[in-house]
Design goal:
alpha/beta; 228 residues; binds adenosine-5'-diphosphate; globular; six-stranded mixed β-sheet
Length: 228
């Protein structure tokens, strides 16, 4: 589903963020991406949702080489990749239902499609009761659930999470990670960058470790934050 081959990313100021990265993540697989700040985690995630194209090497997402993708096909790829962030990025003046529906509006979904898909996404994250609430009326964990519903409402093949529990308490972080692993177990490929050592050690899922823009370890069978 995600195929990264010999990838190097050099930013315009000359910073080399990734060097010779090879990574394959299969359908329905869940992988943690760990590493110190500045090790290249966000850069690697940016490649997956084509915020960036590689300087060298190839990135193939759901069978498509992102670098050779014609401009008009980019929205189609983006629909196939849901993204969630540490700071949730919800629209403060819209309620929960409208925040999730927004992801359908930007891809031109009909009213009928919205009324069908939004309730399903909210049910998946356990927030059906809160559809009329506004973001400021929700806890951090609930806000992250809304952003997960928004990321999933287009039924993407891939979900990318960049430090999704960075602003949450340990108990809530655990619930959010459980939700993300359940989503992977339902067939969505999930890649999750995190600093949360306790969660990584507790989950026993695949762990890919970056140091200075290079993958130094890939515990495919499930590992801890530091162990092979
Ligand atoms: P992480 O997510 O692990 O903290 P990043 O991918 O954000 O790491 O950053 C990797 C390296 O690339 C760092 O040295 C960072 O300063 C640099 N970097 C990130 N974004 C840019 C950018 N837009 N321009 C220049 N350098 C950048």
């Amino acid at each position: 589903m995600i195929h990264v081959e010999g990838v190097t990313v050099v930013y315009s100021d000359g910073t080399r963020a990734l060097s010779g990265v090879d990574l394959q993540v299969d359908r329905g697989e869940f992988a943690f991406l760990v590493g110190a700040s500045g090790s290249g985690k966000s850069t690697l995630l940016h490649l997956v949702y084509r915020e960036l194209v590689p300087t060298e090497g190839r990135v193939i997402i759901a069978g498509q080489d992102v670098a050779s993708l014609p401009r008009e096909r980019v929205p189609y790829l983006r629909r196939n990749v849901g993204v969630i962030f540490q700071d949730f990025r919800l629209l403060s003046e819209r309620n929960v239902w409208e925040n999730v529906a927004f992801a359908l509006e930007v891809v031109g979904a009909s009213r009928r499609e919205k009324y069908r898909k939004v309730p399903l996404a909210l049910e998946l994250v356990g927030l059906s009761e809160k559809e009329q609430s506004f973001p400021h009326q929700l806890s951090g964990g609930e806000q992250q659930r809304v952003s997960i519903a928004r990321a999933l409402v287009n039924n993407p093949a891939i979900l990318v999470a960049d430090e999704p529990t960075g602003n949450l308490d340990p108990d809530i972080s655990w619930e959010i990670m459980q939700l993300l692993t359940n989503i992977a177990d339902r067939g969505t490929t999930v890649v999750c960058a995190t600093h949360d050592r306790v969660i990584v050690d507790g989950m026993r899922r695949r762990v890919v470790s970056l140091v200075g823009g290079t993958i130094v370890r890939d515990a495919r069978g499930g590992g801890g934050y530091d162990e092979p």
